[in-house]
Specification:
The complex is a heterodimer of chains A (305) and B (334). Chain A is of the alpha/beta class and 305 residues long. Chain A is built from 13 helices and eleven strands. Classes of the chains: A alpha/beta (305), B mainly alpha (334).
Chain lengths: 305, 334
C-alpha cells in the first residue's frame, strides 16, 4: 500500500505547478480521496519545517519527539505565536546544508521559502512538501488537514479544527446587519484590505473591514489623513510599538492618530497573531470580539478635544 | 545685475503659493475655505477632524517642505561657491550619510524607542560626527579638494555601515526602512519633527547666508581672497557647520532628498549674473519651492502608496544633470 505515500520523487510542489491546467476542485477531490483511503504507511518520525507558519502547525499537530528541527523564526515572539514553546526544538536557519544531516523523512517549506533551497533538497532526494498560503478560515482548515495528512496525524487535525470552530462559534455576534467597522493599521501606513487574513479575522469577530470598504485590496497604503477624516469604530494596531521601533512606525506614534484614539477605542494585536494562517488566529478573533463591548461606550463625546 | 531686483520677491511669492498649495493637497479632500478656517481659527463648519488634519498632519508637512528645501538649496549654493565646483552638493561632505547612519543605529539599538525625538536627535549626532571626521581629515590647511575626497570617503563608510546594520537586523520592514532613508519622504511627520527641524535648520540658514561676501571674494582665487582679508579657514568651518546643522536636521527627519542641493543653484545661477554671493538667498527660496512642488506632486499620484519624495526630485534632477554635462562639453569644445 506504499503507493499512496508521496515520496521524494513525486513532490507535491509539481502538483501545484500543474494545477494551472486542472481546475482546483479536481485537486481538492483528489486530496479528499487520498485522505479517505486507508493508509498504513509509517508516519514520518524525523520532521523538519523551514517555514514559520509550518513550524506552528507542526508544533500543534506533531508529537515533539517526531520533530527534528523548526525554523529559527519559531523562536521569535514577534513572528510566532508559539515562540514560548519552542525551546524544546532544534532551530535552524533553513539552509539545505543544515537540513541534509538531519536525515529528515519529511521537510515542510513555505511558498516563499528560497526556491533554490527547495529545489536542491528535492534533487537530493528529500521528501519536501510546500505549505500553501491562505488568507481565510476555510484555507486555514484545509492547511490543518493538509499538514495533519503529511504527518499522518489526522485525528489531531480534526480535533484542532473542531476546537477552532467551537471557539469561533462562541464569539460569533448574535445580531447581523449593524456590525461596527474596524481597521487594521500597520507601520508604514499600511492597512489590511480585501483578501487579507486580517480581513477574515475582522469579519469572524463581527466587524466590517473599513479598509476593504474604502477599496483597498491586500495590504494597501492608507494615508493617516484618510483615517483621521473617516475613522472606524475600532482601530486595530497590527504592530506593538514597544517591540517595533522604526521611522516607518512613526504613523502609529503620530499625534493626530493619538488624538483620534482618545475618542475611538483601539486594540493592539501582537504582530505574530496575524503573521501566519494557522488556527491560532482565533486568538486574534477572540481579542477583537471582546473589544466589541467597548464600542459606543467611549464614543459618547463625538467631538475632538 | 538685470532682473536681480525682482528675482527674490518673485521666488518668495512662488514659495508662498506653493506653501498654500501644500496645505490644501492631500487624500482627505479638504476645501480651500474650510481648510484655512480650520488651520487659522481651529474651527470647521464640517468636522472637527478637519482641524486635526490641517494642524497636525498638513501644517508640519508644509513647514518641513519649506525648511528642508531651503536648507538643501542654500547649502548647495554655499558649497558650490566655496568649493568652486559645480558638482558639489550637501551630501558630498558626509552629512546625509552620517545622519542616516545615526538614525539607523538608534533604531537598531533600541534607543529610538525611548522618545519620539531620540531618532532625529541621533540622526543629527551622526551627521555631526561625520562632518567632524571630514573636518579632521581635511585638517587645518586642507583645501577644497581634500574636503571633497574626505567627504566621499566618509560617505561611503557611513553608507556601508548603514547597509550592514540593516542587513543584520531582524526587522521585517528593513527594506521599507532603507527606502525611507535613501529616498526621503515627508509623509506623516508631526509638528514635533517640524519644531526640531526648525530649531536647527534656521541657525544653519542664518550662518550660511552670512558667507556671501567671502564667496564673492573667493571667485578671485584663494590667495586674492586672503589678501582681501577673508579668513579662508573660518569660511570653510562656517559653511561645513552650517550645512551640518541645516542638512543634518533635514536628513534626520525626512531621509535623504537628492538632487535639490545640486540642481537649484544651477537653475538660479544665470539669473544672478553668476555671482556666488547673490546666489545664496534665491537658492534658499528656489530649494523651498522645488521641494514643496515635488511634495505636492507626490501626493497627487499617491493613490497606490505614496511615491517617495527623493524619487521625484531625482527624476527631475538626473536629466537636468545630463543637460549640464552636455552643456559643459559644448563650452569646452567651442
Amino acid at each position: 500500500m506504499t503507493r499512496h505515500r508521496p515520496t521524494g520523487a513525486r513532490p507535491s510542489g509539481s502538483a501545484s505547478k500543474r494545477s494551472g491546467r486542472w481546475p482546483p476542485w479536481v485537486w481538492a477531490l483528489l486530496a479528499v480521496a487520498v485522505e479517505a483511503c486507508p493508509v498504513h504507511a509509517a508516519p514520518p518520525e524525523r520532521v523538519v519545517s523551514i517555514n514559520v507558519c509550518a513550524d506552528q502547525l507542526v508544533q500543534l499537530l506533531a508529537r515533539s519527539e517526531d520533530v527534528q528541527a523548526l525554523s529559527f523564526l519559531a523562536g521569535d515572539p514577534q513572528m510566532s505565536v508559539l515562540a514560548g514553546q519552542s525551546s524544546a526544538y532544534r532551530l535552524i536557519r533553513g539552509q539545505a546544508e543544515e537540513v541534509l544531516p538531519l536525515d529528515a523523512d519529511l521537510v515542510i517549506a513555505g511558498v516563499y521559502s528560497t526556491p533554490a533551497t527547495v529545489a536542491l533538497l528535492r534533487r537530493l532526494g528529500q521528501r519536501i512538501e510546500i505549505l500553501p498560503m491562505t488568507s481565510d478560515l476555510d484555507g486555514i482548515r484545509a492547511n490543518v488537514r493538509r499538514v495533519a495528512g503529511w504527518l499522518r496525524r489526522e485525528a489531531s487535525g480534526r480535533a484542532l479544527i473542531a476546537d477552532l470552530d467551537a471557539r469561533l462559534l462562541a464569539v460569533r455576534p448574535a445580531t447581523h446587519g449593524h456590525e461596527p467597522t474596524a481597521l487594521v493599521y500597520y507601520v508604514n501606513s499600511l492597512a489590511a484590505g480585501r483578501g487579507t487574513l486580517a480581513d477574515a479575522v475582522l469579519r469572524a469577530a463581527g466587524y466590517r473591514n473599513l479598509a476593504a470598504e474604502e477599496g483597498i485590496d491586500g495590504e494597501g497604503y492608507l494615508p493617516l489623513e484618510r483615517l483621521v477624516a473617516n475613522p472606524p469604530d475600532l482601530i486595530v494596531l497590527g504592530n506593538g510599538l514597544q517591540h517595533y521601533r522604526s521611522i516607518t512606525a512613526d504613523n502609529l506614534r503620530h499625534p493626530a492618530l493619538r488624538r483620534v484614539m482618545q475618542r475611538v477605542p483601539s486594540v493592539v494585536l501582537p504582530q505574530a497573531l496575524l503573521m501566519c494562517d494557522t488556527p491560532l488566529v482565533v486568538e486574534a478573533v477572540e481579542l477583537l470580539a471582546a473589544a466589541r463591548s467597548r464600542i459606543g461606550r467611549s464614543t459618547v463625546s463625538s467631538t475632538l478635544p | 545685475m538685470t532682473g536681480h531686483r525682482w528675482l527674490n520677491p518673485a521666488l518668495a511669492a512662488v514659495v508662498i503659493a506653493l506653501l498654500l498649495g501644500s496645505l490644501l493637497t492631500g487624500p482627505a479632500g479638504v476645501g480651500l475655505v474650510e481648510g484655512l478656517n480650520a488651520l487659522l481659527f481651529g474651527s470647521s463648519a464640517e468636522r472637527e477632524a478637519t482641524v486635526l488634519i490641517m494642524r497636525e498632519i498638513r501644517l508640519p508637512r508644509a513647514l518641513l517642505g519649506l525648511l528642508i528645501g531651503a536648507a538643501l538649496g542654500l547649502s548647495g549654493a554655499a558649497l558650490q561657491g566655496y568649493l568652486r565646483n559645480p558638482l558639489a552638493e550637501p551630501g558630498l561632505i558626509g552629512v546625509s550619510a552620517g545622519g542616516t547612519l545615526g538614525a539607523v543605529l538608534a533604531i537598531h539599538t533600541g534607543l529610538a524607542g525611548l522618545t519620539v525625538l531620540a531618532l532625529p536627535l541621533s540622526g543629527l549626532l551622526g551627521a555631526f560626527l561625520a562632518v567632524a571626521v571630514v573636518m579632521g581629515l581635511t585638517g587645518l590647511r586642507g583645501g577644497p579638494l581634500t574636503l571633497i575626497l574626505a567627504g566621499v570617503a566618509v560617505t561611503s563608510v557611513c553608507g556601508a555601515l548603514t547597509a550592514l546594520a540593516l542587513s543584520l537586523s531582524r526587522n521585517p520592514y528593513a527594506t521599507t526602512e532603507i527606502l525611507f532613508w535613501m529616498l526621503g519622504s515627508l509623509a506623516d511627520r508631526s509638528l514635533l519633527h517640524a519644531g526640531l527641524a526648525a530649531l536647527l535648520i534656521l541657525p544653519g540658514l542664518a550662518v550660511l547666508l552670512g558667507t556671501g561676501r567671502a564667496l564673492e571674494a573667493l571667485t578671485l582665487g584663494e590667495e586674492a581672497a586672503a589678501s582681501l582679508g577673508i579668513d579662508l579657514e573660518r569660511v570653510r568651518r562656517v559653511i561645513v557647520l552650517g550645512t551640518a546643522f541645516a542638512v543634518g536636521a533635514a536628513t534626520s527627519v525626512a531621509g535623504t532628498i537628492g538632487f535639490v542641493g545640486l540642481v537649484v543653484p544651477h537653475l538660479i545661477r544665470p539669473l544672478v549674473g553668476h555671482r556666488p554671493g547673490r546666489l545664496l538667498l534665491p537658492s534658499l527660496l528656489g530649494g523651498a519651492a522645488l521641494v514643496l512642488a515635488a511634495d505636492i506632486v507626490v501626493r497627487l499620484f499617491g493613490d497606490s502608496g505614496e511615491l517617495k519624495l527623493g524619487v521625484l526630485t531625482s527624476i527631475i534632477g538626473a536629466p537636468f544633470f545630463l543637460y549640464l554635462v552636455l552643456k559643459a562639453r559644448k563650452e569646452l569644445v567651442t
